[in-house]
Write a structure and sequence with these properties.
Blueprint (H helix, E strand, L loop, with lengths): L1 H22 L11 H18 L2 E6 L6 E6 L7 E7 L19 E3 L8 E3 L7 H16 L6 E7 L9 H7 L8 E4 L11 E6 L1 E10 L5 E2 L10 H10 L22 H7 L6 H7 L13 H4 L5 E9 L9 E2 L2 E10 L5 H14 L6 E10 L2 E2 L5 H14 L4 E4 L6 H9 L2 E4 L15 E3 H20 L2
Parallel strand pairs: 3-6, 3-7, 7-17, 8-16
Antiparallel strand pairs: 1-2, 2-6, 4-5, 5-18, 8-15, 9-13, 9-14, 10-12, 11-13
Bound molecules: ligand BES and manganese (II) ion (2 copies).
One manganese (II) ion binds next to loops.
Length: 461
């Protein structure tokens, strides 16, 4: 192991330089204008895997963006770890809030990253994180210390709902067969308190439309006598959550996992720092479901948020108009044992129920995803905890995250393997936001933890 760590130490700077090249590619999966960049990024990832020592590297075509595959099989008697990541990124908008252009990476120190952080779209989500695996693999190959078989599956559609991945996994169960799946696409609690993510929330995402009059109307001639779809929609949205922070949708909590008082006490060992939390996002106060801590509100409890709302006139100056239609996008984060189909159906029923008779309401479901839990009495959890404890020199706690990686549940179903979420970002890294960044400290700790995981997993019990 020492030789592997030495190799990492000696090649640190080059690893960052290579990551910079990857970050310069605008692989925005949501925007068709960037499709050539997404494809170029897949080719680059494949080259990196080949150079690092992977066999059978392939850029696999799908109906959407390609999936990059590579493997190193050293013995049929050893376990196989499948590494999953994504090379696509979120759109960088709004561009004017970036201090430097999103695809021109640079390093700068921040309060939480005194050693410096890499700023660029995708730095933490997920290029900087999956690239740690490529470099850790290179180090293990160079030091001849690879402890088990490894397979890489790096996709290009995660940020748009992993549309092609399920079919690909179903068609390639043999090729992808593995004992566990290792994913670095989440964050730790803090650099002082490292964590292994043991849960992710699911997702139900809908778009709603409220239609009033059959055309936009003069607000003087008609105002006062007709339903204004923007008002109606606003009233409906405000009815979805009550004063105690409870979601009012009929049956919404029916299947919600009741976390025991013991488990809640255990998870609250991660000290909530309400002041730091508020300050980090410029808030005077927080809010949420009554009787739960911020940590619980953002992990073991389901939520509902309006992500966008529009309608009517939003251009320069004033236009006196009552719009014909108003729209909103609404996301709900789910916990075990809610399912996206169940919640989307309950939302649709309820939203129609609270709609006044004088408007027409349409609910359009978008992509969704199942929640996921990795029990802490599993071999993969123990291997990750021990690896990170060695790398950080600190006790590592389990941590349930509020984000979603829907494919983890699909992997378990189709490949019969658990995913272990050994991510290294911080929640303040501004993923999906302007000035996304990833700490150099985190990048290197990740590269060091990965070979330790392989070793612990292979030799552990
Ligand atoms: N890597 C994130 C998810 C994440 C980040 C989980 C940090 C936990 C901690 C992933 O790329 C992502 O953005 N997922 C989406 C869902 C997806 C279906 C678009 C999300 O959580 O909004
Ligand atoms: Mn991600
Ligand atoms: Mn993301």
């Amino acid at each position: 192991m020492q030789e592997t760590l030495n190799y990492i130490q000696q090649n640190k700077q080059r690893f960052v330089d290579e990551l910079f090249d990857l970050l310069k590619i605008a692989s925005i999966s949501a925007d068709p204008a960037y499709s050539a960049e997404v494809l170029r990024c897949a080719d680059e990832v494949a080259k990196h895997l080949t150079n690092a020592g992977a066999d059978k590297v392939e850029v696999c075509k799908t109906e959407g963006y390609p999936i990059v595959y590579g493997e190193k099989i050293i013995s049929a008697d050893l376990p196989t770890v499948l590494v999953y990541g994504h090379y696509d990124v979120q759109p960088p908008d709004p561009l004017d809030l970036w201090r430097k252009p999103p695809f021109e990476p640079y390093i700068e120190k921040t309060a939480l990253h005194p050693d410096g952080a890499i700023f660029a779209r995708g730095a933490a989500d997920d290029k900087g994180q999956f690239f740690m695996h490529v470099k850790a693999f290179e180090a293990m190959m160079k030091a001849n210390s690879l402890a088990c078989n490894v397979k890489f599956l790096i996709e290009g559609e995660e940020e748009v709902g992993s549309k092609s991945l399920e079919a690909f996994v179903k068609q390639n169960t043999e090729k992808l067969s593995c004992d566990t799946i290792l994913i670095s696409d989440t964050h730790i609690y803090s650099n002082e308190q490292p964590t292994v993510t043991t849960g992710l929330r699911g997702l139900s995402y809908v778009e709603v439309e409220v239609e009033g009059p059959n055309r936009d109307l003069h607000s003087g001639l008609y105002g006062g006598a007709v339903p204004n779809p923007i008002h109606v929609l606003s009233r409906m949205i405000s009815k979805l959550i009550d004063d105690d922070g409870h979601i009012t949708i009929d049956g919404f909590y029916d299947n919600v996992e009741v976390v025991s008082a013991e488990d809640r006490a255990e998870m609250n060992k991660l000290k909530d720092d309400p002041e730091a939390f508020k300050n980090s996002i410029g808030l005077k106060g927080t809010e949420g479901e009554k009787d739960y801590t911020t940590l619980e509100r953002t992990s073991i409890r389901p939520t509902l948020d309006c992500n966008g709302i529009w309608g009517g006139y939003t251009g320069e100056g004033a236009k006196t108009v009552i719009p014909s239609k108003a729209f909103a996008k609404i996301s709900m984060r789910l916990v075990p044992y809610q399912t996206p189909d169940e919640i989307t159906e309950k939302f649709t029923k309820y939203f129609n129920k609270i709609a006044p008779d004088n408007v027409k309401v349409t609910v359009r479901p978008h992509h969704g995803g199942m929640p996921y839990v990795l029990p802490s009495d599993t071999k993969e959890f123990r291997a990750a905890k021990k690896a990170m404890e060695t790398a950080f020199g600190k006790e590592v706690l389990p941590y349930r995250s509020g984000g979603s990686i829907p494919i983890t549940a699909m992997f378990e179903q189709v490949l019969g393997a658990k995913s272990v979420l050994m991510g290294f970002g911080l929640d303040s890294d501004a993923i999906h936001s302007p000035n996304e960044h990833y700490g150099l400290f985190n990048f290197y700790k990740g590269i060091e933890s990965i070979p330790l995981f392989f070793e612990n997993y292979t030799n552990g019990n």
